[in-house]
Amino acid sequence: MSALTVYPDNAPNNGNTYLDFSDIQAQLEPLNVRFERWSAGFALPDDADQDAILQAYRQPIDRLQKEYGFQSVDVIGMSPNHPEKAALRQKFLSEHIHDDFEVRFFIEGRGLFSLHVDDKVYCILCEQGDLISVPAGAKHWFDMGKNPNFRCIRLFTTPDGWVANFTGSNISEQFPSFDDYVQQIE
Ligand SMILES: CSCCC(=O)/C(O)=C/O
Ligand SMILES: [Fe+2]
Ligand code: NI
Asked: Of 19, 54, 60, 116, whose CB is crowded by the most CB atoms within 10 A?
């Protein structure tokens, strides 16, 4: 189930949670965050490589590339038994920004995006089929959890792919981790 909790950025215990998809969209729209449910209706084998995944999702990727002029695309994923899971998780855990506008499409599994906009934090649990955009310059972090299980298509408006500028803030440590958030809403 997709979910959103909106917190004051100084009150991580005082959030409002939205579970209805259109309520989530309505909360995110003023931030220029696009949140959509796409059909991820392909049963891809676990060992499908990046090319096979991009081929399977050619049509929706082409549509997005035309709409936004994306210049690069990749597939990122993690599984619970991957030896590098802790290192990859750590990479996205601290607050950062990107200079470019980005889109993420969860073809499998789930993960927690948290956006810090003005004086609020928006924790968004994305699941299979969810498409989320992160506006250029929006402060955010991403937690895949202790036992990550997801695959995601990422579209970038620069040819360089994923480039992050870390803000130096430790705010992400004060807000729910993926595992705590899932426990809270389930
Ligand atoms: C869910 S895609 C992996 C994380 C990522 O690309 C990103 O930009 C996190 O902030
Ligand atoms: Fe990002
Ligand atoms: Ni990021």
From this structure: 116
